[in-house]
Amino acid sequence: MSEAPEFKKYMCLICGFIYDEQLGMPDAGISPGTHWDDIPLSWRCPDCGAGREDFEMAEF
Ligand SMILES: [Zn+2]
């Protein structure tokens, strides 16, 4: 049995920005593969400045 890492995406409800766990956000110091729960609470949407509470998991 193999346990493949499962990456999710989260969308900013205000501007539509997508955070992809698989890609991370290297420009903001967030390594690829960083899960949403591991992102600092102080993190803000780079496009509109919304907090994490304004993001919702997105299914694709
Ligand atoms: Zn945003």
- Tell me the overall shape: globular
Q: Regions with pLDDT < 50 over 5+ consecutive residues?
A: none
In which order are the strands of the major sheet placed?
2-1-3
Please outline the major beta sheet: 3 strands, antiparallel
Percent helix, as a range, is under 10%
Strand content: 15-25%
Number of helices, counting only DSSP H or I runs of 4 residues or more: 0
Bound molecule types: zinc ion
Average pLDDT, all residues: 93
Structural classification = mainly beta
N-to-C series of helices and strands: EEE
Beta strand count: 3
* Rg on CA atoms, Å: 12 Å
Keyword list:
globular; 18% strand; single chain; mainly beta; 60 residues; binds zinc ion
How is this structure best summarized?
Helices cover 0% and strands 18% of the residues.
Topology:
Layout: E1 9-12, E2 18-20, E3 55-58
Antiparallel strand pairs: 1-2, 1-3
Bound molecules: zinc ion (ZN).
Zinc ion binds next to loops.
Structure write-up:
There is one protein chain. By secondary structure, the chain is mostly beta strands. It is 0% helix and 18% strand. The protein is built from no helices and 3 strands. Strands 2-1-3 form a 3-stranded antiparallel beta sheet, with no helix packed on it. Strand 1 and strand 2 form a beta hairpin. The model has no long low-confidence stretch (mean pLDDT 93). It binds zinc ion (ZN). Residues 12, 14-15, 17, 45, 47-48, 50 line the site of zinc ion (ZN).
